[in-house]
Write a sequence for this structure.
């Protein structure tokens, strides 16, 4: 039995668990750490696979793939592990199709989609409002945000219904929700949405591939390497694959973690799996009911990600960037695609069937789904799209020990009542995983941040001398849910973004006013409004 | 191993599981049925306990307790088991306290609370709107309701915010949500609320103790007897207590149900536990992801129920009925109390700390909670309330294999996407439990209905000759999620209730109009409006 005593057992060998293990090991190499992973691989929601491509085979990411230059936790890890990034290709015409299947397919080149001036005004006013709200929310303890109960009592859908002027913008917001969360705007709390956006530095950062945004860079060789390199450093002997944790017992002296075949005693546990899976573990004694109520109500998104390889990147030759956005009524199964040509030049596109489309398409035959994807690609990019080399997809809802992707959201009414349970340790159990992050929550960078935070909590218990004073205070504040609230990325930019937004909204309101005043000035106003996209674009770029 | 082969294994020995077992056994006594129950008792969310009382000891219900005369499935069972009901005592002054702690405590005698005329008008208009919507929803398949996506995309809170005119009514609606669901209006889909109300025959039925309503009758000796009598008839040897199911495997021939100590082969399984607990079972092969997404997002309510016994029912002597309703800002921990004097005359009150109050009060010391309850009772009913015999409470969030009470609700965005998974069998697994009921969903009657429906599904598979043609068709329609939609209680009354409601609203609007027209007619109008409560009251009574 002595062999089965560990200092720290970590549930889940994804980026969060491995980051935690790595930090603990660096600070105190004497601590015995074990990672238990249900899957037969490390990496959690990141997985990199080899598929046939123009020059034989190549590797693509079928889970998390992008890195942004403001994702400091992840960038630092990439640097430390000696990995390299390269930019997301986004030069050329982008395709925008919203409305009914026979609606006009539009092309655009800016970072904001090809919308009519009126819808662009609508977009600017709603982004301004949301950005202002984002700047006020308290990411660390959302219940302390102004109007927290009110904002948490409505869905994102309800907010958009109340504040968007045009049906087109409502459709755009549905698309955003689907592509960011794999979920419809009806399924999440508006306050959660604000907190999530604030943790990333603003709404636009979630959507764009411009500098600082979520879709800016990719990792050469794929993101699963992050976990593989970390496992290497932590020691593969300390990682047990195919070992799903079924129960965690605690008494005054020990925690006991059990799998179907093992029972391990330890001094601290870090649970890193997504909340809906953490909820399936049997805890004895039972967790506080607040924690149970929280994890019962944090649904995970649904995304089917596909990679399709080609002999050549014909879309680039035709002046396209490879980016397509398609609304929910277009008959197109996917919501978004991007160029995915590999660093070694193997041409590919990556796309996402997400939210309600994933629900609709997931139960269908793989062949039918592929046909629908190809047929849409042909429609948007040309007949060359039909001559692909290989089509490979991953339905994350069907992945054991994930059950969905990319992130768990919070349904309305959770943040104001149960949020403290998200990170508060329960005895010897500490909580990590990207859902518990306060910077880039839901992203790989958040997974790293959360893992490191949980590692510090454990070190503070097991060997506090390895922590700096600052780290000790951070752990103390985090657990006490009080003290100086951590400055979020967005709040740093509050004044800056508000000032710029005021300019846009003044422009917008004036234009709207003029429009309403007299119909015969319409043409003049329209010509002015045509400049709005570039104004917004430059605003966005400078703001990010 | 042969000894461990069963025809049907039922997970959960609550009212739903036992009703299923009883019906299957009646139709085909040769079928081997086994019930597995995690708790050390039968009854699930019904439990009857003995506590000190005026004449020594007596029994009270600490879980589900009321029966309504429109709850046909439950009434039939009560009759069959030879149990007796008696009416909820509701004669005398009722106490109504809303607003700040120092707001006026009002008394009233009708079934609707003591509200100002203006708030009563507001209540009548919102009930009229909700009742009209209730009459249109399709309980069997809510996604087929008119405007389903819209209604499911908002919370009950958002609907009330948009349609209630007064802050007082908004507070009343919060109270209703808390007392019916143990949950705040922000935590559930508005469409779910409508479906739930429609399955009961209308919103008022959920709230009242008048004939036909949810709080009309009680069972002499307590409701747990229902399950105990059923277990007697099914045979106690076929009920294994302390046997929580951890996994269900299925192959072409068998289902295998495992607990920590047993592994049982069977031909069919009925899972009756609440969705959030059904979600914790490990299924192999995995359930369809739609089902996983559904059960991940059906949180259970939080209620702490208390019984407090007295030497005499002093409140009756003082002209009170024992019914108190208290709003969320009054400093009163409970939301509602009722007289709970036993059939043998032992004086008692029953009360509920619910929703956000349960969240706030649950982690506190039992003594502190008791003191707060007693202090509020003294405030509302007089100093005699301090001289109690015994105070006993049950926090359902802390009850193993329940984790909450009274019912699981649906967060927004579920009904329109994942609802079919609620009842659709998954291979050999059938789903019961009150959450799957179409009549009085969430109540004991719904538990019986759901158990019987699942029993018929199993019989249709194992021995179809035991079913009538009508039953076979019902099973077929239920599983195909198509065909003639079952007529709900509410739809039967659609025209009736609409006509009556129109009268009320006309009255209301006219009054409001007059009020707005001229201030010097205010007194006249006010005297007219004082009649509104009785109009509404008679409307409600006739409607129910």
């Amino acid at each position: 039995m002595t062999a089965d005593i560990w200092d720290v057992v970590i549930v889940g060998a994804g980026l969060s668990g491995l980051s935690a293990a790595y930090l603990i090991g660096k600070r105190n190499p004497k601590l015995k750490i074990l990672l238990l992973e249900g899957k037969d691989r490390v990496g959690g929601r990141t997985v990199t696979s080899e598929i046939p491509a123009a020059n034989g085979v190549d590797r693509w990411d079928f889970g998390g793939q992008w890195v942004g230059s403001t994702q400091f936790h992840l960038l630092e890890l990439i640097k430390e592990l000696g990995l390299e990034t390269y930019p997301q290709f986004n030069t050329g015409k982008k395709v925008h199709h919203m409305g009914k299947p026979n609606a006009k397919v539009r092309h655009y080149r800016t970072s904001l989609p090809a919308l009519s001036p009126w819808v662009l005004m609508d977009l600017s006013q709603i982004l301004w409002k949301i950005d202002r709200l984002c700047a006020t929310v308290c990411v660390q303890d959302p219940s302390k945000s102004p109007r927290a109960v009110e904002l948490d009592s409505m869905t994102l859908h309800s907010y958009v219904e109340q504040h968007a002027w045009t049906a087109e913008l409502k459709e755009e917001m549905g698309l955003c929700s689907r592509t960011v969360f794999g979920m419809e705007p009806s399924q999440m709390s508006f306050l959660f949405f604000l907190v999530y956006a604030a943790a990333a530095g603003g709404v636009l950062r979630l959507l764009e591939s411009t500098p600082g945004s979520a879709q800016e860079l990719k990792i050469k060789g794929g993101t699963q390497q992050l976990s593989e390199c970390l496992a290497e450093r932590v020691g593969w002997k300390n990682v047990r694959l195919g070992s799903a944790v079924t129960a965690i017992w605690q008494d005054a002296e020990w925690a006991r973690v059990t799998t179907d075949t093992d029972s391990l005693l330890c001094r601290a546990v870090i649970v890193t799996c997504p909340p809906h899976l953490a909820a399936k573990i049997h805890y004895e004694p039972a967790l506080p009911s607040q924690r149970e109520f929280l994890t019962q109500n944090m649904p995970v998104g649904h995304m089917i990600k596909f990679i399709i390889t080609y002999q050549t990147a014909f879309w680039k030759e035709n002046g396209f960037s490879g980016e397509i956005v398609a609304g929910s009524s277009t008959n197109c199964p996917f919501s978004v695609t991007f160029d995915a040509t590999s660093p070694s030049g193997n041409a590919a596109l990556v796309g996402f069937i997400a939210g309600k489309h994933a629900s609709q398409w997931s139960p269908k035959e793989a062949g039918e789904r592929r046909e629908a994807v190809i047929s849409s690609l042909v429609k948007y990019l040309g007949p060359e799209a039909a001559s692909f080399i290989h089509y490979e997809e991953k339905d994350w809802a069907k992945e054991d020990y994930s059950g969905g992707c990319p992130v768990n959201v919070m349904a309305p009414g959770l943040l104001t009542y149960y949020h403290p349970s998200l990170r508060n340790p329960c005895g010897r159990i500490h909580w990590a995983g990207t859902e518990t992050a306060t910077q880039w929550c839901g992203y790989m960078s958040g997974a790293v941040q959360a893992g490191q935070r949980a590692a510090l909590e454990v070190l503070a218990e097991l060997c506090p001398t390895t922590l700096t004073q600052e780290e000790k205070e951070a752990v103390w504040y985090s657990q006490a849910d009080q003290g100086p609230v951590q400055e979020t990325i967005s709040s740093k930019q509050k004044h800056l973004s508000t000032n710029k937004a005021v300019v846009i909204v003044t422009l917008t309101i004036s234009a709207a006013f003029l429009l309403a005043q007299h119909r015969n000035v319409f043409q003049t106003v329209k010509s002015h409004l045509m400049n709005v996209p570039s104004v917004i674009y430059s605003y966005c770029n400078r703001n990010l």
User: Anything to note?
Assistant: Chain A touches chain B through 47 residues (CB under 8 Å). The radius of gyration of chain A is 24 Å. Residues 482-506, 508-544 of chain A have pLDDT under 50 and may be disordered.
